[in-house]
Amino acid sequence: MNFKVLLVALLFGAYLLVSHWVLADPVQHAQLGVALALAPPLIALVLFCLASGWHRLIAPLMAGVVVLIWQTSAWLSTHFSWLYFLQDAGTQLCLALMFGRTLLAGQRPLCGQIAALIHGGLDAALARYTRRATKAWTGFFLAMFTVSSLLFLFAPLTAWSAFSNLLVLPLTGLMFVAEYAVRLHCLPQRRSEMRFTDTFRAYSALQRSPAGDTTGER
């Protein structure tokens, strides 16, 4: 495994564990909770500016964010759990939309786009399977969004935190394994061509593509 990927994975895992610890006693760890909750969107904002070539905007944007945090510090210290929730539920909903929108007329399902990069094209059986797989991933992320929302609104905060910080990633990994097993069962003629890691490589290549292949066989 690439060292940078491993390092990022370890740091992310540590972030989730510390976040769960903070949310177990949000009053005692309010300041740390605010910092941890704000870190991902701020890092994403900086990376977006760097990727877009808007380097000069970083300083004024950060200054504006600092002023905003200062003005809302009292609210943030007692409601920072909402920032965690919005990030978690928002991510799940965005992933559901990312998969689901490719099921619309005139679009190639996202799993089909990934399969086309791996296999160089789709026959009828593979096209049918990738559409079903895209529906399954859409349903999975919608289910995760729904469970996260219900737990946050109606269950103790620690229960929601355990789901969001400790279970979401393992469940997503389990979904990958389950989908791969179903794929091997449904497409035995392509079993020799299917390697588990190819999906991740193809998706990375798709993300680097300027526009991606969103049309084609459906």
Features:
mainly alpha; about 220 residues; globular; 8 helices; about 80% helix
Q: What does this molecule look like?
A:
By secondary structure, this protein is mostly helical. The protein has one domain. It is built from 8 helices and no strands. Helix 1 packs antiparallel against helix 2 and helix 5 packs across helix 6. The longest helix has 31 residues. The protein is globular and about 60 Å long. It starts with a helix and ends in a 10-residue tail after the last helix.
Cα gyration radius (Å): 20 Å
Uncertain runs are none
Strand content: under 5%
Report how far apart the termini are. Answer: 34 Å
> Roughly what percent helix?
over 70%
Structural class from helices and strands?
A: mainly alpha
SSE series: HHHHHHHH
| Averaged pLDDT | 86
Shape: globular
Total helical segments? 8
How many beta strands in the DSSP annotation? 0
Number of domains: 1
Q: Mind describing the biggest β-sheet?
A: none
